[in-house]
Amino acid sequence: xxxxxxxxxxxxxxxxxxxxxxxxxxxxxxxxxxxxxxxxxxxxxxxxxxxxxxxxxxxxxxxxxxxxxxxxxxxxxxxxxxxxxxxxxxxxxxxxxxxxxxxxxxxxxxxxxxxxxxxxxxxxxxxxxxxxxxxxxxxxxxxxxxxxxxxxxxxxxxxxxxxxxxxxxxxxxxxxxxxxxxxxxxxxxxxxxxxxxxxxxxxxxxxxxxxxxxxxxxxxxxxxxxxxxxxxxxxxxxxxxxxxxxxxxxxxxxxxxxxxxxxxxxxxxxxxxxxxxxxxxxxxxxxxx
Length: 289
Ligand SMILES: [Ca+2]
Ligand SMILES: [Ca+2]
Description:
Blueprint: H1 2-45, E1 49-52, E2 76-82, E3 93-102, E4 105-113, E5 122-127, E6 140-148, E7 153-162, E8 165-168, E9 175-181, E10 186-194, E11 212-220, E12 229-238, H2 250-288
Parallel strand pairs: 1-12
Antiparallel strand pairs: 2-3, 3-4, 4-10, 5-6, 5-11, 6-7, 7-8, 9-10, 11-12
Bound molecules: calcium ion (2 copies).
One calcium ion binds at residues 59-60, 62, 64-66, 71, 190.
């Protein structure tokens, strides 16, 4: 009887321990699943890069990186990837992204290599007030569109996006240029965008200083932007306020000093001359008396 009781007791504790183990296993599995889900979500958002801009030398927007003139040496330099789908980023195209601010302008260079470049390749910079992972949600598009990449024919285009459709601006603002180095298959795109400018009206985004703003970089191989944007990524740029400080040259300082001295001398001479006339008048009055 005692043996049966001991046996029942041992079975009871085994069952109880196994329940405990099940609860612990369930909790561990739940934690693993949750961390995996969080990881997947953060992967979806990891495409975005924040860049705090610095002022620097003004690059020339001509599609060439002039290393002898240290053209882009002041730029913030990043290596990022462009993806087919920002919600599930994978197998991206690596690009060099260089950005610098000069006075009221933002300069962006995009450079990459491809085994084969298509004749109608393009790169664009999309802007909007609020961020999105969908290029058709953006408001403004500055695009450098190749018409024949091997011959080096390209156009700089300014578009606006309305209800997921691209429309050409009535007035083109900003600048862009590109060049393909045939030997290395490396292409360079250079852009200039105005900051705090309302010149483009409803057809451009006003890029505000003092805040982070979203910029989407797009790549494609046709001229159909509504449907054929192939690769993209979003960066968040903090644009700086620019305070205009006029620089006075040494020649200007000498001129201002000389002018001040001459006018002071003329003023003193004129004052002395008037003083002498007054004195002379008083003398004449005394003589007449
Ligand atoms: Ca250049
Ligand atoms: Ca526009």
